[in-house]
Amino acid sequence: MEVIEERKLHESPVGFINGWVVENGFTSIAFLGSAPPLSAAKSRDITLSDAAGMSPLELVGSALPPDCLVVSDYLESMEAEAAIQLLAGYRNALIVSVIVFVDLAASPLTAKDFVALGFHHCASFEHEAHALHAFEYNINSYNFRRLWNNAENWANPENFGRYWW
After folding, report:
1. Number of H helices and number of E strands within the chain?
2. 84 near 109, Cβ under 8 Å?
3. Which of 14, 20, 81, 104 has its CA 20 to 30 A from that of 40?
4. At CA 137, angle to CA 74 and CA 89, rounded to 5?
5. Distance between CA atoms of 91 and 138, rounded to whole angstroms?
6. Residue 114, pLDDT score
7. Does residue 17 or residue 1 have the better pLDDT?
8. What is the pLDDT of residues 92-118, one digit of tens each?
């Protein structure tokens, strides 16, 4: 089994998901698998919708596109290739944030598969006698700005604007 660096250890997935929703200010949440138990939905105006049977483009093109997608108790019953295609499809549909709760021992995907898809490990829990891990993909923080990634720091910056090849 792979060792995952523990960044945050939370007492429960419920507390984590509620804090995550409030912290990010989500108002429309779609879910695959079991519905997230959101006590935050009672105190705020949060719309929950079931994404089962919808393609990523149908979900994004719906009347009220979701701010985020929560996937829980869903990937464990899939083949690895189908799970990768599912997550990549939702990620590529430009949903702002996708969070996956998964038991890696029962999942066809490994932690490396999630990282390869652009997800990062954000929490771990002891839940119902097994380890549950949360992986998040957020389009706003996926490709952070690097100091070197601009025209001034690339080859021959003194010639920019002077010569045209």
Report:
1. 6, 6
2. yes
3. 104
4. 60
5. 9
6. 95
7. 17
8. 888 889 999 999 999 999 999 999 999
Q: What is the CA radius of gyration of the chain?
A: 19
Question: What is the maximum span of the chain, computed from C-alpha positions, in angstroms?
Answer: 66
Task: Give the whole-angstrom CA distance, residue 89 versus residue 60.
Answer: 11
Q: Which residue from 128, 73, 107 is spatially nearest to 1, judged by alpha carbons? A: 107
Which residue type does 59 have?
L
Q: Is residue 15 pLDDT above 60, yes or no?
A: yes
Q: How far is CA 114 from CA 117, 121, 128, 138, 150, in A?
A: 5, 8, 23, 13, 28
Structure-derived torsion over alpha carbons of residues 141, 85, 61, 120, reported in degrees to the nearest 10: -20
Which has more pLDDT, 14 or 8? 14
Q: What are phi and psi of 105, to 5 degrees?
A: -70, -30
Q: Is residue 132 within 8 Å of residue 104, measured between CB atoms?
A: no
CA 68 to chain centroid, in Å, comes to 8
